[in-house]
Amino acid sequence: MPESAHPAPPTSAAEKVAIVSDLIFASRITGVANHLGMLVDVVRTEAALLARLPGAKLAMVDLNIDGVDGVALLQQIKNVAPQCRVVAFLSHVQVDLAKAARAAGADDVLPRSKFVERLPDLLRE
Predict the structure, then answer these.
(1) What Å distances lie between residue 72 and 6, 46, 89, 91, CA to CA?
(2) Which of 28, 69, 71, 89 is the most buried if burial means most Cβ atoms within 10 Å?
(3) Taking the chain, what is the end-to-end CA distance rounded to the nearest angstrom?
(4) How far is it, in rounded angstroms, from Cα 98 to Cα 117?
(5) Among 113, 88, 85, 123, which residue's Cα sits nearest to residue 102?
(6) How confident is the model over 114-125, as pLDDT tens digits?
């Protein structure tokens, strides 16, 4: 399986990047982006996300990726790319994780359903 659904051109960083392990959800993100005429670089690992952050304007982070400490990743994103807007998404029942994500620097923390609903606007901003 490829690391990225839409790899960034080698000479420039992606403006919008997402870390998502669920292929169906990743397809939903790229489908909305394609419909809007935009490109989102979807990756599955922390290292791949961090490598794509220079120049990124938006990072979308699935806080439910197995084996990834989402809160620590949010802190890393803010350290590597303070200019980047960070939108984290998770299950609506994960209230404590949502609070921790906000404290770690996420600009928005949304339940998956709200993330999907707001995705076109998030990509346009």
Answers:
(1) 25, 10, 15, 18
(2) 89
(3) 30
(4) 18
(5) 88
(6) 999 999 999 998
Q: What span, in angstroms and rounded, lies between the C-alpha atoms of 7 and 81?
A: 19
46, 3 Cβ separation under 8 angstroms: no
List of residues 6+ apart from 80 with CB closer than 8 A? 50, 53, 54
CA distances from 123 to 1, 40, 59, 73 (A): 25, 9, 10, 21
Contact 90, 76 (CB under 8 A): no
**Separation CA 106–CA 109 (nearest Å):** 6
Buried b (16+ CB within 10 A) or exposed e, 75-101: ebbbeebeebbbbbbbeeebeebbebb
The mean-pLDDT minimum among 12-16, 37-41, 80-84 falls in 12-16
Global confidence as pTM: 0.86
Q: How far apart are CA 41 and CA 106, in angstroms?
A: 19
Which candidate, 113, 97, 81, places its Cα nearest to that of 16? 81
